[in-house]
Each structure stands twice: as C-alpha cells, then as structure tokens.
C-alpha cells in the first residue's frame, strides 16, 4: 500500500493527534497513522498540501513543506520526548547524543538547521520547554522546588530558580503567588 506523509506543525499532545485525524477524515482523506508532527495517508487520494493546509490551519496546525521546517519540527518533538528520557533514565544521554542517535546526523548539522529555521538554538528551546514543564509542576503544588529540580535534572533548586527567572522574567515565588499563572502552549515555543 502506497502512502503520503504530511509533516504538521503545532502538534503537541494526544488531543492534537485526534484533532488532525478528524480534520483529515472530514476532508475525505484516509489517515493510516497520525503521530506528533506527521500524518500518514493512504495514497488512494492525491494529497495537495496547499489544499489541506487551510483546513489544518483552521484547527491551529500548519503543514510543513520545506525539509528544514520538517526537520526542525521533528527535533522539537524529539526534545519533548527527551524530557521524558531525562526524567526516567538512570543515566540519561546528553541532548546532543540523544538527537544524533535519533536522527543519524551530526549535532552540528541538526543545530544549524534548527537555529536557522526556529531562530533560536536547540539549547534555548530545550530550556524553554523545561521551564514550561516546571510551570506545570509548580501549578499542581505537589512538589517542592528541590523535587522539581531533581525531576528535571537540574544541578540544584537554585540553578532551576535562576533559569526560571531568566526565561520568565520573574521568580518562582512570584509565579506561585499568581492565582492563574500564564503558561505558554508548547506550540508557541
């Protein structure tokens, strides 16, 4: 069976997968597999990304047509998976080892493509991603800052606190005082 692969931006959770699957089915396509960052379609209907793009955009997604954009989105998805690797692995890989293993490409190449396309470095994106995860954990109020720092593999609560202030412009204490802390959706990073 022949298939067509669409690379899709702004997919960050299982509900995004369901939404993309639904949009494609409503448009008359037959998705065989929808995962974060891409959808595989049966080749029975020719797929014109220009025709699918407005439908997905209406639901908050974008079709990626350029190879650099596609690779950048795949790196973003992999970095979200890397956060889980950091949390669960006894001896986690470095970011560069994780990505080079995942993509079978040099970190230098991945970094150049990412920086050029996303207008920030992989390291800065990963920091933003980690801080959004920290915000989520802080909003639950179940863990201390030290416990969160351990979960996120920071060297100390102070290091986490300093990075939090750098990224958000305010302290962890100020964030906790907010009744409704403002969090960014992952697709805005």
Automatic annotation (TrEMBL):
SUPFAM superfamilies: HMA, heavy metal-associated domain (SSF55008), Homeodomain-like (SSF46689)
Lineage: Bacteria, Pseudomonadati, Bacteroidota, Cytophagia, Cytophagales
Protein's UniProt keywords contain DNA damage: no
Pfam families: HTH_18
The keyword Transmembrane belongs to this UniProt entry's keyword annotation: no
Keyword annotations from UniProtKB, A to Z: DNA-binding, Transcription, Transcription regulation
InterPro entries: HMA_dom_sf, Homeodomain-like_sf, HTH_AraC
Gene3D superfamilies according to UniProt: 3.30.70.100, Homeodomain-like
PANTHER family per the UniProt record, alphabetical: ARAC-FAMILY TRANSCRIPTIONAL REGULATOR, HTH-TYPE TRANSCRIPTIONAL REGULATOR EXSA
HTH araC/xylS-type domain segment(s): 77-178
Name of the protein this chain belongs to: Helix-turn-helix domain-containing protein
GO molecular function: DNA-binding transcription factor activity; metal ion binding; sequence-specific DNA binding
Species this chain originates from: Hymenobacter qilianensis
PROSITE patterns: HTH_ARAC_FAMILY_2
